[in-house]
Amino acid sequence: MSDPQTLAMQYLGAIEAHDYDTARALLSNEDFVYKSPISRFSDADAFVAHMSLSGSIVQRIEVRRAFVDGPDVCHFLVFHVQLSEKMAVDLVQWVHVEGGRIDRIEALFDAHPYRLLFEP
To answer: pTM here?
Structure first.
């Protein structure tokens, strides 16, 4: 069983590589929760299906800082993405690990550029 920081880094690496099967394998099968300013999921399969569609905008993930407190890992990140133009999105991600898998992810970032994509 990997420690929480290793699991969180493996998850980020899988998302960056667009390897959604590996990302899914790191997530809990039960009681999974994902929250961000633009989406919420309570099912890991639905979350990964969403990521496989929207994750193509991710070009690179830069880890600026990590903090670990038992089963909790907090990363200060920069997501380098391509929407209509290349952008660097500052993001904080809090991951909680239970039973050797990630059961909770909370992401905080300025969602304004993403909301503009979906406004009528």
So the answer is: 0.88
